[in-house]
Amino acid sequence: MSVEDSNILNVEPVLRRKTALNSIRSWPINLKIGTVIVTIIILAGVFAPALTPYNPIVGDFKSTLLPPNWEHPFGTDNLGRDVLARVLYGTRIDLQIGLIMTYVPLVYGLMLGAIAGFLGGWFDRLLMRLVDIAIAFPFLVLIIVIMTVLGPGIHNMYIAVCAVGWTIYCRLARADMLVIREQEYILAAKALGFGSWRIIFRHAIPNLLAPSLVFSMADVVLCILLASSLSFLGMGVQPPTPEWGAIVADGRDFLLSAWWITTLPGIAIIVTGLGFSLIGVGLSTMLGQRYVPTV
Amino acid sequence: MRLMGYMIRRLLEMIPALLGITLIAFLFMKLLPGDPITILTGGKASPETIAALRAQYGLDKPVYIQYLLFLVKALHGDLGTSILQRMPVTELVLPRVGPTLFLLCYGGLIAVLLTIPLSILSAMHADKPVDHGIRIGGLVTFAMPSFWLGLLLILLFGLKLGWFPIAGWGEGFFGHLYYLFLPSLTIGLFLAPILILSLRSSLLEIMGAEYVEAARAKGLKPTRIMVKHVLRNALIPTVTILAVNIGWLVGGSVVIETVFSIPGLGMLLVRSVLYRDYPTILGLTIVFGILVMVVNLLADLSYAVIDPRVEVK
């Protein structure tokens, strides 16, 4: 960024009153488009019963494997269920999965990482050994092994991901804490005699949020992909619950005769993923972070 | 020689992580529902027989002794007997390492082959339509579920056009190349956008560096500057990203092997989970852990090859 640019940025807030509308106007275009996509998907999930007259679970055996038409825009599956209805109701399940599996581990992963980075010592060493071991396993394999112990189902999937997913946020927060710890405002807080707890939670964590927040957008996408993969393998959400990966799996046996069952739910996953990714890219430019969705 | 010492040190550092992996795998086995002796005897044996069997399998000893016995056996290559296949887990697992490794390397190669030209194109036309197109396209393929993409590739190139086989991994090196093309493409299309995002921003950063300006002032050809001066320096962060994602990729291969019926570790894992073949799951967990560690070691070594300045500390 050149000198002129940064001057403009400094002057801007003084000239224009900061209202909610103005701050939305200043968002990068990616963030705007992403927010619109995600809002539409959330609304589609909330208003699913109003958007489709069909039941996502009980089918009509007189109309099985119908190709897309006016009555069934996404066609019907082998049990005569409307695929659009299943995809719409699936929105509720998949968004819930994506958000819970991302933001629950984020909260305590971030806190643990921040505490470990600030305090150091045995707690830090122990935590990092744990993180190293968790990272040595391929993520999906570890989840599958935990799910073998717990049994299939959506709640066990939450438990498995919550047991492992925090490690990435822990690493992110710890790495930044090691840098922040040495900065003047933290030293000032220390000099004022504030306790470690207050410094970590009131002074450091607000400054640690940005990288985790940007990564969390990619993580929502990855969690939805993970959950739908598990459901596809028969270990995640159990039938007849409409989950996007499970619907794709339903259509697997009818790939050649009824392409729509497999194809169309996949597009729902892609659009959702694109929405969150665009928010992630937009946030990263706004917060001055690099958007690289590593795992 | 320096590299040799570094290798040995890294291999020694792997020992604690390996112990952790086996410990966790062992604890999982202990946590599993059901008593192995009851399963073995079908619950119909006399208490004396059960006690004798417990002693024979070492189950009457304290847990830490059991873990040590398990470790000693594992070091001798004995990971127990598969319940489903009635053969040693080691014999079941080892022939399946090949297909999985081939698939991962092939997928990684396709990802790199897509990444380098596309990120150069993207960086040279930064913020132009080409750049936006590549980046949006990347976000789209990143969000594609691999099983979905795999099924669509099977439908289009396997079933409709008949260009590629849809199952198995073929005979001989070229057979593998042919059979594993679609599955590797699926892996490559997921991995490439992550690498492109990273390489593009590194390229842009380095294209503004003074030594690149100097090279341009010397009158070097733009392609030579790009390949010799910019690309080589920009590759290092991308290799890190590649290495960090290997764990995810190995996990992804589980799904892709199932979709394409490739006789690798992942397909064996899914089948073992469905039939609750615990000894096999345990053995596979350890093999997967080792696989990720080895790949990370290879990534670290490749830094030294790309960048001679890298301190092998």
Describe the secondary-structure layout.
The complex is a heterodimer of chains A (295) and B (313).
Chain A: H1 3-15, H2 20-25, H3 29-46, H4 48-51, H5 83-119, H6 121-136, H7 139-150, H8 154-164, H9 166-180, H10 184-191, H11 196-232, H12 244-250, H13 259-287
Chain B: H1 2-31, H2 36-41, H3 47-56, H4 63-75, H5 89-93, H6 97-124, H7 129-143, H8 146-160, H9 172-179, H10 181-207, H11 210-217, H12 222-259, H13 265-274, H14 278-306
Helix pairs in contact in B: 1-14, 6-7, 6-10, 6-12, 7-10, 8-10, 8-12, 10-12, 11-12, 12-13, 12-14, 13-14
Characterise the protein shown here:
The complex is a heterodimer of chains A (295) and B (313). Chain A is globular, with a radius of gyration of 23 Å. Helix content of chain A is 72%, strand content 0%. Chain A is mostly helical and 295 residues long. Chain B contains 14 helices and no strands. Chain B is mainly α and 313 residues long. Chain B has helices at 2-31, 36-41, 47-56, 63-75, 89-93, 97-124, 129-143, 146-160, 172-179, 181-207, 210-217, 222-259, 265-274, 278-306.
